[in-house]
Amino acid sequence: MVSFPKENGTDFRESDGKEMRDRPPEKFAALQRDREEGDVRFSQTLSALPRNSGPGVFTSILAKLARERRWWDVDAVFAEMSARSIRPNRIHLNAAINVFAKARRPQKAEEWLIWMQDNDVKPNEVSYNSVINACAQTGYVERAEMWLGRMLEAGIQANEVSYNSVINACAQKGRVSRAEVWLERMLAAGVKTDAFSYNSVINACAQRRDIERAETWLEKMLSEGIQADEVSYSSVIKACVQKGELDLAGYWLERMAAAGLQANEVTYNTVAGACLAAGDKERLERWRKLMRLEEPSVGRTPLQKPSRPSACTTRNLDEVDKDILSDTLPKKPDDLARRRRTERRREDGGAPLSRKSSSRNATSSQVSNTDQSQTWMWARMFMILVLLQLVLAVWSDYAIQSTKS
Q: Is the pTM of this model over 0.85?
């Protein structure tokens, strides 16, 4: 009898993910009884299969378990196959790994892949891709990279599914360098890339506000003849806006419109917020027409990439964020007055303040000195009261002792 990997340690009902979280004890017990009854019914269903049922019947059953993510019934299927003296082939084992991958149980998927290797059943790209996808979707980036490396070491040709799973997992975890390495290996291996391959890296670079790297991969994508979509351009545009590079954002917005792509709602809100923060309503209206493909001149004149930093704004990211949030945050009079004085100094080129502003500063310093003197006065009064209380306490103790004597 063939021995297959078994569930080690705790019962599946103790760690079955979302279905078992935050449930009252009575509901947990009821669900456990339903599962046990379901297991009995499933075993009876398998036993009731015709004796002449072939391997294809069990492949269909495993495919149904994958759709329903019922990974706990996989052992029963292989136990019934063993009882009928049906030796599982690579198709059955791949189907079992797929069940665990769909249910996001990467550890069990790895165990079955290792069992295949130990029992002289050679895994193929489907076997490895299922395990890689299971590890990538559950956030185990290192293990996904490890299995892709083992797949290549075994001489199995990795396809776009293999690389895209690892690239996307690295990008979602913010490991931009690792995502770039796997994309470069994908290109070096001659594997066909698509928009998803590049968008994962572009978005990861944009999330770190690294405009140069995001632009580099977008240009690389276009040079390879791959059609960029809204996600490709929107990621770069958002990074430019967050860094305060409005001219550069407008350049990519025009290229997006020239490609016949309409901006989504997120991109529109990001660009509109930046323009409103900069007080540039004219730019906002022009960009609104571009994003809605209403600008008639799009694509007629050659686009020239602006130099960095942009001439439209000299403010950094923090200042732009403060302006965007200024409508919702409470305004302090002192902050507004300080900002006006700072802007006035910039306009004057760092010149000394006028007589009116200097008198205003002198008045404010006098007010602050008055506040400090009042604070010290109240502090002295408080200390005097404390000393008086101490004297009264000592005097009362002395009077009581003299009375007793």
A: no
